[in-house]
Records
---
Amino acid sequence: MLSTRHGVRVLGPTDLAAFLDLTGRDPVVNVFADYRARTTNLEPRWLGGEVWGRFRDGELVAACHLGANLVMVEATDEDARVFAERALTRRRSVSTIYGLQAPVRAFWDVVATGWGRPREARWCQPHLEIAGEPAVAPDPRVRRTTRDDLDVLFPACVAMHTEEVGVPPDQGGGADLYRTRVSQLISLGWSFARFEDDRVVFKAEVAYASPHAAQVQGVWVPPDLRGQGLAAAGMAAVVEQVRRDIAPVVSLYVNGYNTPARAAYARVGFRETATFATIMF
């Protein structure tokens, strides 16, 4: 049922076409929501949460994915505030809020006092895209990983996640769940790495993909090997393989303060198209 005040309701399978039209307004920025819709059909039991839609004159104009991740789609600041007011009627269940900086900030301004202090807020995360050939030579030793690689790859994934997020993904009994996620990405053909002497020297994964775009995450080089060009050449190889086999545009977002990573992506040919923000609990 529509909220009589704000025109907001929970979306379901009958809304899928309208929702995909909405994500299609910027299919690269909205790749997470597009992927989630296509893989769950907007069925709450598969979403593990809900997707809210805001309607104006019968047309879906904005949406909010509310699961482990809270991500808004084509939301203005006003839409974000409306979603936030609705979110305040329930206990916080999300672990991360992320997306375009402006609506994330507008949402947070409303829920901040009710949802508690976040563990960290990253307000400047350039969103990058590449839709052509990489500008540097791809590393020919970067390849798709296989299940045989899992025992070597998993510690590198844990190290990357701990360094990036600040919390080990395998703590508190989470090791099996995280290992399952790494295995899933391998099975999908979304995990890429270069190995030397049973050691990962570069790795990256596709986190989400649609017919329009793929979003890369987990880019990592061991600390003692950084500054040698492994990241740029490795990402060039990932871009080449992803554009060939998965989606025509490759995207990612990076912390604004991570100057070496931003320089590596620029060398590959990524261009900045937006600014994201992430709030972590």
Note: Residues 150-165 form the longest helix (16 residues).
---
Amino acid sequence: MLQGTPVYDICTLSDFRQDDIMVSRFAPYLEHHKNLYAAHRHTFYHVVFFTGGAGTHNIDFEDFEVKPGQIYFMVPGQVHSWSFEGFTDGYIINFSDTFFQSLLLDTAYLERFAFFSGDVSEAVINLPAGAGEKIGNLFEEIIKEWESSPKQTTDLMRVLMLQVFILVNRFKGANPKGPASYNQTLLKNFRKLIEQQYKKLRLPKDYAALLYITPNHLNAVCKDLLGKQAGELIRNRALLEAKRLLTNPELTITEIAMELNFGDNSYFTKFFKKTEGITPEEFRKNILTHNHHD
């Protein structure tokens, strides 16, 4: 399997040998890992809360303005980079996809939070002043636990982190009442299937068959809940992976086209340009130039 950008696991970003979690204040973390300004991706969940600073950060090729009181959430595999202006501080937590499994019976618990869906539009949240103070206090408690070493400190960090997630969810106004509807569950399962099959299956009818519904029903659900056609979701996932792979200058366009099952360069280039308005080569040049200047 081809890799696009540099990929980091928790061990490579920590002076401590603890594979499941890493906690730090943001400024010293940034000072210690200057290589992380350029585009890279992680094998873990990544949460950053800014208490000061300016500039931009980019998640899966979308730019966001850095602001105090802002918190962002990333899932394993997403690509991001930073471009800060002046001194930037806050808190950072990196944790593995198995970190909560020993505490929670529901292994899919994090999927309840839209900001852990991998949808970039849900990932960056600007908190009001009062909320930012509460979240900051919780991060301080997590830092204290991280820097101490009594028994059960990891479990207490888990509990404090869950408080952060639940409170941020409330501040967003995302407090759904009752269980998800049938169509919401259907959409969630469709998105999971896309994540697993987007390199092989490109047609809505293929996914509809796996979901035991008609293609028309699948399209109606996507249109109703997202305002998009089912095919658009499939194409967008393939396009995102193409962008991620294009950030690695050592991969040829042919290798990327083959990895994504496009068959040949011309088909891949046509697909890419139709959506992005530029060729894969032009996109790569823009990204690499951006990284170089940063």
Note: The CA atoms of residues 190 and 196 lie 10 Å apart.
---
Amino acid sequence: MSIFKSIVTASVVSLACSGTVFAAGKHLTVLIVTGQNNHDWVRSTPIIERLLEETDRFDVSVSTSPSKDSPDDAWNDWAPQFKNYDVVLSDYNGKMWPDPVKRDFVSYVSGGGHVVLVHAANNAFGGWSEFEEMTGLLWRGPDGGDRLYLDEKEQLVRQPKGEGPGGGHGAGHPYAITTRDDQNPIFKDLPKVWMHVSDELYHAQRGPAKDVHILATAFSSKESGGTGVHEPMVWWIPYGKGKVITLVPGHLGTNDKYPTTYDCTGFRTVLQRSVEWVATDKVTIPRPKNFPDADKTSVVPEAVK
């Protein structure tokens, strides 16, 4: 079986790979881990919290790490209780977590936990092998592992470690997101192609790239400073009995004004649905009537932020 075929067809997996399946009406518990990021986590974390709670599908808690320069005592006292949650969503990109927190996180995922990584959260923790394996593709240099992309014929290419560019992005701009697995419930009833608002388009993500199931891509144009190929935008990986889904759209800078990524109806919907799907293998959150199409973006009114 080809790499691309195995990636796409394997997106419907046995329930054993996703841990407990919850009843459709049950609120899922979500822990957002935050506190450090090279983006404006002070703004993005509350937005994500509101986005999830507005669906009436999730009960959300937030665990904020100590600051980078906090004393050891503060870090020793920080102990997120991952095991108590159906989903852990990371809005974190900063100092390496203490060893006990790392062990608890790996135990959580391998034991059947569910993780969502948003934007720069996949940049984190260089050298933490378990995190890199469960994430698959990360912001790393050319020597940080293999790269996956779709060529001009939309065929999957695996570029070996050390060849080609490392992780980066061109200038922020609106771009089209294309579904690559229309059987996955997150994307099943969405347009094949839809326009996302101005955002960073990550390219040449690197890593172990094992068992990567690509759900959506975007064309990284050379005119915008990109690579000229279709880059993965949303993917997931089974890890032990759990699974991890990564959404690389989601930039929010300190000076970004409305409309931002988090005002995009398409991104908001995919984020909400990803959190539900990663825990249940199902999606009950409906597609909004104003979902974007291939020709134009769609944003919520500024007052909704």
Note: Residues 3-304 form a domain with the Rossmann fold fold (CATH 3.40.50.880).
